[in-house]
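DM from R.C. (forwarded with permission)

"hey, sorry to bug you on a friday — could you get me a structure for this? deadline for the figure draft is monday and I only need the backbone to look sensible"
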Amino acid sequence: MMVAHTARWHDALRHALQKEENANVFQLATTGANDAIPYVRSHILRGHVIHPSFPSLPLLVTTTDIRSPKVTQIKSNPGHRIEAHFRIKTTLEQFRISGRMAIYPSSEFKDTRGIEGVGEVYDALRNQGWDWEKERREKFDSVDAVLRASWCRPAPGSIMQSYKEADKWPVKVPKPGEEGYNAKNYEEALGNFALLLIDPVEADYIELGVTPNRRTKFVRLESGDERWKEVILVP
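My reply, with the result:
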């Protein structure tokens, strides 16, 4: 029986993330189906989901407001494709990761539809009883009260008549058991909070800390013992 291996690019990414404070901030690019305009914004990597049967096929976890324009862009894009970019200053490494996005919003709001993850990793997670709603709530409670307040305000990108309108928004949204807890604000923020899961299909890995520089492209294979084909590129 073949021993399942981790993905070399993912090992390098996790190692690099440990070397630098705030390295989990990355850039997420999307496009819509009706235009060729790229949209990019900063995101925070909030974890990795790895099924033990598929250690080389990690899912990268981030979060968003379900009302954000990026959600519409991802939904309208064939294949729900996105691209993420990490630049690690300490190690002089860059990772450009292309993949398919799944979206898991609140299970209590039936009029807010997400994108169900598809493929062997998601199938394996479902078979073992993985609970995305539980994961969503845990991620929501793991951030601080100030950040939770960002999901307790009007939809991102909506028009304001004055900056003073923001004075009406809550500054903090404590979770149950914390001082100042307000059930209405907490449930509103939780309802707008959604998980984003990136299922990588390509990874472009650049090592600028070595001379000469190195660049390797990893292309995901649909089957076989080795799930990533490595192609050496000119940096």
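R.C.: lifesaver. The two ends are 37 Å apart (CA to CA).
me: no worries. The first strand starts at residue 25 and ends at 31.
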